[in-house]
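look at this record:
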Amino acid sequence: MKPIFVISLLLFFSITPFAQNDASGVDDATGVSFGQASASVQKQLEDSVAELNQLRQKVADETVPLSRKLSDLESQLTNVRLEYQQTSRLLDSGTLDLANLRNEIKSRQEEATYLSNLLSEYIRNFESRLHISEIQRYRDALDAAKLALENNQLSEEDVYKAQATLLSTSLDRLRDALGGARFNGTAVDPSGMVKQGEFILAGPVGMFRSLQGDVIGTIEQRLGSLEPAIVEFAAIEDASAAVQVFENGSGRIPIDPTLGNAHKIEQTEDTLLEHIQKGGPVMYPIFALAGAALLVALYKWLSMLLIRKPSRKRIGALLNAVAEHDVQAAMQKAKAIGGPVGRMLAAGVEHLKEPRELIEEVMYEKMLAARLKLEGLLPFIAIAAASAPLLGLLGTVTGIINTFKLITVFGSGDVKTLSGGISEALITTEYGLIVAIPSLLIHAFLSRKARGVVSEMEKAAVAFVNQVSKTPFKNTNFSAGSIE
């Protein structure tokens, strides 16, 4: 770059004097000095050109290796880029494969967790569906499978092996169930003694016979116990058939169609006295009220039953006697009617000579006396009908209070502990309604019967007064003292 600049300056200064000579007309001497200068400049130019060529040659000599080196570097860059692209593709592919592998691992872990939960659920269902006599038979396998889940020192493979072992055992149980199963074990006899013996399972039916052969019967589960309980055969024929099955391996198996439910229901049945005693102390006032209401009802029913009903014929004969003004005959007819109706009519006959208003008042007085007597003690029955449910409600409250006391002491886990308070609550309500409903019906019946007697009295009184109004007494030749 520097030689080119020098050459340019030399050319500029060499051309400028010639231009000035032509323009101003300088002399030859001066032209000689300019020729020397031009020659000097020419020489410098040639030297500069030579130096320029050397520089160009040198640049060319240095450019070729550099170009080759540049080409080599570009080739290396291209190769590196290709290698980078291949590595990037491999890295992306590896990242994708790693992500897929992670998803696959997660999916397999979820499947493993699902299978583990499924096997755990199967273990719980398997245990709950076992016959009570089979629990001790499969106890070891069940404990191993359940404890494997809680053992942190075991690997997942060991846990699966324990669960798979129980699964295989359950399949073996299904194969055994096809032809019946026979195995040894222990059971509790009716006296509470644990007996060693042999079980036979045929479907849902289980039987047990002790080694001594003194106890044989069906198997059932008692509430709150995991030991099989023996229910001895009630019939000798059933026991003999079961012995033949145990000895020969075949025969007629005595089967309870209810699968032991009949025995359980029988155990829950109470006698009447036991049922009443479960009601607690409130049962005493309920039964006292029921007894008093029953006695009053019997008394009222008998007293109303003995009331003589007036017949139309006798009342008609009395009205005819009144129409004929035969006081003595009318009095006899009234007494013949009897009962409250007869006494009321007799009082009316005694005052036949009196005005109609007085006769009505006298007869109404007798009617009121009879009504009070008929309706006497009936309110007590109504009170019994209303009080019995309240006493039952009182027993319900006390029973619930006792239940909550037991819950405070024993908790709510054992239902059998709470049954006493619940029974007291329900039984008192039951007997309260048992007393109230009949008392209410009896009160309605007796009240209706009393109203019927009063209605008969009203009917007879209206007929008597109407007859007196139709045929009034105009003469007063007789006195009240002459009436007997």
Summary: Residues 243 and 344 are 85 Å apart (CA to CA).
